[in-house]
Specification:
Helices cover 25% and strands 33% of the residues. By secondary structure, the chain is α+β, with helices and mostly antiparallel strands. The protein is globular.
């Protein structure tokens, strides 16, 4: 991933505050190359996030047509830390995808594994 991706995540979070921002991490295999913001359709977007299902379906359809893959998801914690909240843990699919959580300037990445979230350290490339 590039520093541009991380900067975009921080910018999206800043612009959405006090609500949580959310969206998709797109790319190939485990390489995140693009951030796709989506609407936060949660009932209370200040305290939770829910990615717009239509945007998720559209992204998966594009991936089947040789577009970028859905590598994972991102969202912000405007008043919290960049770690999975109780709500995040309860809603996780345990599907192996990557979650980026943004809190201020801090961006942390997590693998949503069968046993729960595991912190990961993504490799950064400057492209």
């Amino acid at each position: 991933m590039t520093s541009k991706v991380v900067s975009r995540l921080v910018s999206e979070a800043r612009n959405a505050a006090p609500e949580e921002c959310c969206g998709l991490l797109l790319g190939r295999k485990d390489r995140i190359t693009f951030v796709k913001p989506t609407a936060n359709v949660a009932e209370d977007p200040v305290a939770n996030f829910e990615i717009d299902p239509a945007a998720l379906v559209k992204a998966h359809k594009a991936a089947r047509e040789d577009g970028p893959e859905v590598i994972g998801y991102y969202h912000s914690h405007p008043e919290g830390r960049a770690i999975p909240s109780a709500s995040d843990r309860a809603s996780a699919a345990r599907d192996g995808r990557i979650w980026a959580i943004v809190a201020g300037e801090d961006v942390k990445f997590w693998r949503d594994s069968e046993s729960g979230f595991v912190a990961i350290q993504p490799l950064r490339a400057e492209h």
